[in-house]
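Hello, quick one for you while I still have it in my head. My current little project is about how a certain protein chain folds up. You're getting the sequence in one-letter code plus the fold written as tokens. Would you mind checking whether the tokens look sensible for this chain? Here's the protein in full, and shout if anything looks odd to you:
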Amino acid sequence: MSWLELSVAVDQEAAEAVSAVLSNYGYSGGVIVEPAWTPGDEGSEFSYDPTRPVTLRTYLPVDEHTAETRERIEQALWHLGQLRPIGPLQVRSLEEEDWSNAWKQHYTVQQIGARTVIVPSWLEYAPQPNDIVLHLDPGMAFGTGLHPTTQLCLQLLEQYVYAGAATLDLGTGSGILAIAAAKLGANPVLALDNDPVAVAVAQENVDRNGVGDIISAALGSLGAGQHMGHWLAGYQVTDHDASLEESQIAPDPNSFDLIVANLIAKVLAILAPDLATALAPGGTLISSGIIIDREEEVTLALAAAGLHLTERRRESEWIALVHRKT
């Protein structure tokens, strides 16, 4: 079988949005995220340069649907390109043997925070004392650990998770934050997403990491989130739909000692009362996915919901906030 490799260079802030587009059309939802690496002075060490573009790749089998699929990808990228800088779509042909190994060469072990290490399954890694190792294979690109919002959440989880903390990962994506929380000692952990594809990918990664006895991955959200569509549709709040509500999990009030919500500012603001309700007294909320220009919108909404801001972190143009329910 022949394949097409589609690649596009994007800025850091657009990486996850473009990844989601490619995963919708690429083979098995696979997306390669290739960071911009800069060689060290001696040439043997590399560092990640967040100021340079990220290259994203996906693969299409060559068949009667290839031309139509490629056109849909180009249209979606054009629309996203009105919001963020996105380079031209590059296309090259590969044969079966070339394709089977092409995507693996772009992944490496990632060290994030003080303890968290993300390891693709085909690479060997000798854990150091106190390492929290997450075994994640590419599928959905959400939550690979590349994006600043994911990194901020992982750093804060290292700080705020404690043994036995009942935890919610809202908008779980690949499940990376839920898995990190479980390996840091949280128990039980509920991983919720309103995208069935994301729930399936999260479950695969949960099983791969051997934490299925701690984490439950499910379709669902909190409050108003049950009536929101996928982010590609703009998270529009829909009319009440009883059948939709019955298919989703909706946690009870005061259920969680810790909630991590790596979403976007608009959704965090809408869900602020529901997040506050789901937290147990004294519980902690880690929220991220907040572009700096929208930070005030989120802080005001969470304050109005009765949550107290205790910490703020910034990486590039992205913000993560920590709130406590008093």
Summary: The domain at 110-325 is CATH 3.40.50.150 (Rossmann fold).
